[in-house]
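Hey,
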Amino acid sequence: IFNDLKWVDSKTPEKTREQLEGWLPRQKWGEVNWLWVGFGQEVQQQKEKTLRKALACSDPKEALVLLGMLKVDVKKEGKKFGLEEEIERVLSDE
């Protein structure tokens, strides 16, 4: 996830940790790791739930863009769950 967000440029979990610790205060590492590991698992394993959360949040367009940055094909996945019209509407809003 951190590579996808361009927060680090690493090939291994160890290098990711080292790079994050280079700019993220060490006392925050545990919280950030716990939060992002859970988010990553949900994004990969529970796509319908993640898409529905994104659509229901205060800024659904930005949430869908974030999911796209994390390599979720929101249109393809949305179609699987009958959300394609709602996703298209949100993405086309200016």
